[in-house]
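---------- Forwarded message ----------

FYI, see the Peptidyl-prolyl cis-trans isomerase record below. Original note from H. follows.
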Amino acid sequence: MSQTKPEIDPPMGPAPSELVIDDLEVGSGEEAKPGATVEVHYLGVDYETGEEFDSSWSRGQTITFPLSGLIAGWQEGIPGMKVGGRRTLACPPHLAYGPSGGGHPLSGKTLLFVIDLVGIR
């Protein structure tokens, strides 16, 4: 498993209109199921600017949460991933924080995440 904060190159081309899943590293551990509680390290950037908006790496610790409490892109994009894996998720607004003007600072934005699946609880 990667133990270092990922680097993200700014994507080329237009933002996707649907969820894009790309395994950078396939894990060999237990597989995440829909609705599981997962422990992850992650980095999130704005798809268009490449600007980081959130990172568990910056806080120096993983986070653990039930998938059911997360944005739709994570609910759809993490199941099937195996512990030890690293995956990118490109989440268009309807699978992230909704359309522009939705009240969240990231509303209307396509978000790109790199997620390391550390464990399943």
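H. also flagged this: The beta strands are 20-25, 37-46, 52-55, 63-66, 86-91, 111-120.
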